[in-house]
UniProtKB/TrEMBL annotation, chains A, B:
Catalyzes the sequential NAD-dependent oxidations of L-histidinol to L-histidinaldehyde and then to L-histidine. Its EC number is 1.1.1.23. Keywords: Amino-acid biosynthesis, Histidine biosynthesis, Metal-binding, NAD, Oxidoreductase, Zinc. PANTHER family: HISTIDINE BIOSYNTHESIS TRIFUNCTIONAL PROTEIN, HISTIDINOL DEHYDROGENASE HDH. It comes from Methyloprofundus sedimenti. Zn(2+) binds at residues 265, 268, 367, 426. It catalyses: L-histidinol + 2 NAD(+) + H2O = L-histidine + 2 NADH + 3 H(+). This is Histidinol dehydrogenase.
């Protein structure tokens, strides 16, 4: 099999297209009973024994050698030193990205509102930031400074009083890029811990590590399992699945560009999903040829190849409108509209995490510095959820302030409905306020 | 023990107050391994066998006698007939409530926005409604028409194309008030099914029941377990805990009013939590006396008594500001500020589902018809979550439309950062668009 054949070809005109599409999209997250039980035990231990449990797990799992809990904290001086020692081009690039992410995030900030009715009753909604938020940053190869910015900046823009980062430091090695990004983003405190023990510490607090209201950020299966288990005690962001890109192209973009855009998601990992839709059958073959030609040049060729052959597809559609319908079914994390009139096509799109419009808008610009968040709903969850944003670090409280007149009017209705539901204390509570 | 002593008394000046408070608030939801496994089986069966599984479970668990799947649907004509046969006072009260809920909900509707940068690059956020939403309505005594309005109206205001209600009809008996409220609220389709099988049907779809994007509404332990298990496949609202009210009073409200406000939550169920904070010790005793005097008159006296003695408290605080701090720790579902200057006190409140301001604003007005939603975060989750609202039936997609100039500027930064993260396909995808 040559590379030319190593990506699936589908056609919406095939009778069994929907079945093929569902098979292509199917991805069941592994759920391991042993891991589940181990994470339950870790959480219970941290909850009961606090610092000592976190310290023991960290020394054991991360091969650290902490002797007392305070040593787990990374000082602001350490974060600043990491920032100060960054090469200038990297520092400037991170600053440029951080500024753009901040400007965009500011537009998302929810504001309180209220209105007064004719009888003087005031109704409204009060918006407040979370008190504290926790940001999980993975150790090792998946530790991206861009992710630190994307998770931390919205929290700070929301006005979260204290933003606490946890990042494992295997064998005591810190990731200087991550610490520098944390400094730039305004992380308030940082701890050199990771895994389920870090999630448990943030959820319940220890003598040293403050409890937070919400935990965000990506992690491995232990971290994801721990986040699910502490949900309710604290808020969590989404549980991220593999990266996805869906490109709709009218056949007039350079096929090498499109091939590289597919690669840019495929290189994340073997489970990543890169799909191209076009109404131009010849163009699909041109892209297949670009893939075959460019793949050998890529540093992560093996990962890309596995991703494209396992979960990728080139799909012939009858029209761009039909492509939009397929996109709405898939509800991709990233959607590129590489077409002549992307704004028109965009009106047909309902389900997508982020929409990249026009031939110049490579998806990767959104990964780093365009401004919108790169933490996006995956695995079709864009059907009902949204990119990470400032709003995830704010909450709303309803406000009701009845005038005497308002309480009289509302009380009469409340009394009728409460008695209809046989809730007579409800009814009498309202009736006391009648004139 | 007389009734006068049957509610706990705490004082913030006691050395062990924080411990006592945490004990008072502690509530672990029961998690039953057998139920968990049974629900997993039900979901798998519905997923594999569709209509037939739903029909079999419904006949078995709800003692229905459906012979074919189409019989499970409640027609629009049935809903309309229920509405048409409502007594006039109830119909008017429901209409009054629905209108107020709708007016308030309209203010919550999120709008799309975008802005254009100097180089022509456009950034924005597109807001769209969910395609379909599912509303679970319990059968039996917990089936409240007010809940139908509170869950359905925000979905319709959001623009959800199809709102599907499920409500069990044990022995084939429909709840006419619920059907009438569904008609009023604009429910599009309704099915006489319930339990985990109804949640599974809504999450995965069957031949007869359409799959939805999000499932909202309260239910028993089977329903709550099923909602948790299908989360990810669909969105869900919160998992509701017992009702809660926290009242802060300066001692100048009629103590009978305050006692009845406490009763109004306590009558929901034995696990409900009703707490009063006051800086006036004498007033706390007056309320205790009102409780003792009024309790024997109440239809649900046994439930109220169990709730107040098991989970209620009268708490003496040093000041109203201290009361606000305690409220922020508790993060109650409902918070009454029954004080002279509630707006001033409200500035100190950060964590509460809904805030009822002033002596006239009985919490029950919010349960039925004030306008704000009565589906609110419980069990301290107001620290990080919000009332149910229109925004729960909308989602956001990020928009990025780069000009050639913009792609050039952003691409340079993206390239530096991508190469810093060793993601060279990312870098090359950006570099293709450089001038």
């Amino acid at each position: 099999m040559t590379m030319n054949q190593s990506i699936a070809r589908l056609n919406t005109s095939d009778a069994n297209f929907q079945t093929q599409l569902q098979q292509l999209l199917a991805f069941e997250e592994s759920s391991d009973h042993d891991i589940h039980q181990r994470v339950i035990d870790i959480i219970a231990n941290v909850r009961n024994n606090g610092d000592q449990a976190v310290l023991d797990y960290t020394n054991q799992f991360d091969q650290c050698s902490f002797t007392k809990p305070s040593e787990m904290e990374l000082s602001q001086a350490q974060l600043k030193a990491a920032w100060d020692s960054l090469p200038q081009d990297k520092a400037e690039a991170l600053e440029f990205a951080a500024n753009r992410v901040r400007v965009y995030a500011e537009k998302q900030k929810m504001q309180s509102w209220q209105y007064t009715e004719a009888d003087g009753t005031v109704l409204g909604q009060k918006v407040t930031p979370l008190d504290r938020a926790g940001l999980y940053v993975p150790g090792g190869k998946a530790a991206y400074p861009s992710s630190v910015l994307m998770n931390a900046i919205p929290a700070k823009v929301a006005g979260v009083r204290e933003l606490i980062m946890v990042v494992p430091t295997p064998h005591g090695h810190t990731n200087e890029l991550v610490l520098a990004a944390a400094y730039l983003a305004g992380v308030d405190r940082a701890f050199a811990i990771g895994g389920a023990q870090a999630v448990a510490a943030l959820a319940f607090g220890t003598e040293t590590i403050p409890a937070v209201e919400k935990i965000v950020g990506p992690g491995n299966i232990y971290v994801a399992t721990a986040k699910k288990l502490v949900f309710g005690q604290v808020g969590i962001d989404m549980i991220a699945g593999p990266s996805e890109i869906l490109i709709i192209c009218d056949g007039k973009t350079n096929p090498d560009w499109i091939a590289m855009d597919l690669f840019s998601q495929a290189e994340h990992d073997e489970d990543a999903q890169a799909i191209l839709l076009s109404d131009d059958a010849d163009f699909l073959e041109e892209v297949a040829n670009s893939i075959a030609r460019l793949l050998p040049e890529m540093e992560r060729a093996e990962i890309i190849k596995a991703s494209l052959s396992g979960r990728g597809a080139l799909i012939k559609v009858a029209s761009l409108e039909e492509a939009a319908a397929v996109a709405n079914t898939i509800a991709p994390e990233h959607l590129e509209l590489s077409v002549e009139d992307p704004e028109k096509l965009c009106t047909h799109i309902r389900n997508a995490g982020a929409i990249f419009m026009g031939r110049y808008t490579a998806e990767v610009l959104g990964d780093y510095c365009a401004g919108p968040n790169h933490v996006l709903p995956t695995s079709g969850t864009a059907r009902f959820s949204s990119p990470l944003g400032v709003y995830d670090f704010q909450k709303r409280s309803s406000l009701i302030f009845c005038s005497a007149e308002g309480a009289n009017t509302l009380g009469k209705t409340a009394s009728i409905l409460a008695r209809g539901e046989s809730l007579t204390a409800h009814a009498r509570s309202a009736e006391y306020r009648l004139k």
